[in-house]
Specification:
Order of helices and strands: HEHEHEHEHEHEHEHEHHEHH
CATH superfamily of the largest domain: Aspartate/ornithine carbamoyltransferase
Mean pLDDT: 98
Number of strands: 9
Largest sheet: 5 strands, parallel
Bound molecules: phosphoric acid mono(formamide)ester, norvaline
Strand content: 5-15%
CATH architecture of the largest domain: 3-Layer(aba) Sandwich
Distance between the termini: 9 Å
CATH class of the largest domain: Alpha Beta
CATH topology of the largest domain: Rossmann fold
Length: 308
C-alpha cells in the first residue's frame, strides 16, 4: 500500500504513469465513459484549511469513479477539538478506503499516514502541495510544453515551491526559484531536492532576482505571497515582495511563447498582473480543471497498488 504525501516518494516512471492514467480517464470522461474503478469505495476528505479546487475535484472525481466522498472539516470532527491524530487515523481508515488531508504541519499528515490502514493523499500542507504538481505537469504535457522545460518560480518559498522542486528533481528539468531575501525555500528540502537532482540531471537554482530567474524560461509560475495561515503577515509581505509581480515586463524576458501557470487562487496586482493572468487564462483554467483528472488517475493508481 502506498501513500501520496510528497513526490519525493515516487519515481519518475510512477509520476508519469499516474499522469498517463489521469489523461486516459480524462479522455473517457469527455466521451462520457465511466468505468466505476472505485465503485463502493469512500474517500474521507479532512480539511483544516479552506479550499475550492481541492474539495470540488476530489469529491467530483470520487463520484465519477463510482465512489463517494465525505467532506470533514475540523469544525465538524473531533480532530478539531483535540482528538489525537493517531486515533482519528485508526477510526477513519477502518471505515473508509482512502483519505485526503489538507492541514498545517506536514508532520501531522505523516503521523496520520503511519496509523492509517488505507492510502493517505496530501491535499496540501504547509510544506508541500503535490497533487497540484500532478495537474501542472499534466497541463504542460497537454500544451506540448513538457520537453526541455526551463521553469521559473517567482515569489514566496512555500509549499508550491517545494513541490516544484521535487517535480523538477524527479523528472530532471531546470527550475530557477526567485524569492525575496528571508522568504527562501526550506533549506533541508532544497538539499534533498538537489541530491535527487544529481541522479536525474535536474538543475535547481535559487536566487533573489526574479528577472534572472525568468530570463529564457519556457514556463513561468508563481503563487500567492500570503499562504493560508499567514494572513497576519499580509501587509508586511506585500511591502517586501514589491518587484516580484509577474507582469508583462517580466514575461517579456521569458522565451517567446512561454507559458504562465498559477495554482490559484490568484491575487491580481500582487503576485501576477491582471494582464498576464488574463492573457494566460486558458492554460491556467486548464490547469485547474486538470486537478480533477490528475487526482482521479492518482486514486485509481493508489487503489491498484493496494490490490497488487
Ligand atoms: N490550488 C488549490 O489547491 O486550490 P484550493 O485551495 O481552492 O483547493
Ligand atoms: N501556497 C498557497 C497555496 C494555495 C493553493 C497556500 O498554502 O495557501
Amino acid at each position: 500500500m502506498r501513500h501520496f504525501l510528497t513526490l519525493r516518494d515516487f519515481t519518475k516512471e510512477e509520476i508519469l504513469e499516474i499522469i498517463d492514467l489521469g489523461l486516459s480517464i480524462k479522455r473517457n470522461l469527455k466521451q462520457k465513459i465511466y468505468n466505476n474503478e472505485l465503485k463502493n469505495q469512500t474517500l474521507a476528505m479532512i480539511f483544516e484549511k479552506s479550499s475550492t479546487r481541492t474539495r470540488v475535484s476530489f469529491e467530483t472525481g470520487m463520484y465519477q469513479l463510482g465512489g463517494h466522498a465525505l467532506f470533514l472539516s475540523n469544525r465538524d470532527i473531533h480532530l478539531g477539538r483535540g482528538e489525537p491524530v493517531k486515533d482519528t487515523a485508526r477510526v477513519i481508515s477502518s471505515m473508509c478506503d482512502m483519505v485526503m488531508i489538507r492541514t498545517f504541519e506536514h508532520s501531522k499528515i505523516e503521523e496520520f499516514a503511519s496509523y492509517s490502514k488505507v492510502p493517505v493523499i496530501n491535499g496540501l500542507t504547509d510544506s508541500f502541495h503535490p497533487v497540484q504538481l500532478l495537474a501542472d505537469y499534466m497541463t504542460l504535457v497537454e500544451h506540448g510544453m513538457h520537453n526541455n522545460i526551463i521553469a521559473a518560480y517567482v515569489g514566496d518559498g512555500n509549499n508550491m515551491t517545494h513541490s516544484w522542486m521535487m517535480l523538477a528533481a524527479k523528472l530532471g528539468f531546470e527550475l530557477r526559484i526567485a524569492t525575496p531575501r528571508g522568504y527562501e525555500v526550506n533549506e533541508s528540502i532544497l538539499q534533498e531536492a538537489l541530491l535527487i537532482a544529481k541522479e536525474s540531471g535536474a538543475v535547481i537554482k535559487t536566487m533573489n532576482d526574479p528577472k534572472e530567474a525568468v530570463k529564457g524560461a519556457s514556463v513561468v509560475t508563481t503563487d500567492t505571497w500570503t499562504s493560508m495561515g499567514q494572513e497576519d503577515e499580509k501587509e508586511e509581505r506585500i511591502r517586501i515582495f514589491n518587484g516580484f509581480m509577474v507582469d508583462d515586463a517580466m514575461m517579456s524576458l521569458a522565451q517567446d511563447g512561454a507559458k504562465f501557470l498559477h495554482c490559484l487562487p490568484a491575487y491580481r496586482g500582487l503576485e501576477v498582473s491582471e494582464e498576464v493572468f488574463e492573457k494566460h487564462a486558458q492554460i491556467v483554467f486548464d490547469e485547474a480543471e486538470n486537478r480533477l483528472h490528475a487526482q482521479k488517475g492518482l486514486m485509481v493508481w493508489l487503489d491498484k497498488q493496494r490490490n497488487q
